[in-house]
Task: structure prediction
Amino acid sequence: METKDVILELRTQKGLSQEELAAKVFVTRQAVSRWETGETIPNIETLKLLSQLFDVSINTLLGSPSKLVCKCCGMSIEDCNMSREIDGKFNEEYCKWCYADGEYTLDFWKRYAEIGGTEKLEEFKKQLLFELNTLLDIEGLPKAENLNVLSGEFINLEYTLPNGEKVKYLSDNQTYLGSQLESELGGRCIGVAANMDFLLICSYEENGENPELLIYKKR
Ligand SMILES: [Zn+2]
Result:
């Protein structure tokens, strides 16, 4: 969709006339009309106001010309998973799991960003990979090649202990570094997760079913 169609659609959805929209973003009715005929597009300040008014990102207003990717975890971002500042404005650089309310959500990411930014995070990932691969090696499992930032709500599997007790080791609200290993073990997937405090290795069937905890180790 082009900007002109996006604006027309959003204005209509909100039940605003061109005149009413113009008043809300401090332009003339003619300006709105020119946007909707495709003669002009709003300037950046007006785009910011429209973004707040319609609760869509500027990228969406512009007809999604860029494929947005989270600068922290690399996940592709759309309005539904985009981060926001404390005042509710979109931050188009990060996904909502990596950055929320004006702050990085990851303890380790925050700590590493403070002292050295992305470079330090890469170093930390390498360190975790080394530690995880040492454990995987002992178990005779394939190596982990990379780690991604993963939301706890997707990887917080419930394990059954030998005594039948069910346990979760992660928190739905936190974010972890982890990945699923390339190789499979007897039809089961192997997954790793870690943060500043622990290393976890588990196996599971497709979609995380019948998970089994292989290793949980404090760092
Ligand atoms: Zn992210």
About this structure: The two ends are 49 Å apart (CA to CA). The chain has two domains: 3-104, 114-218.
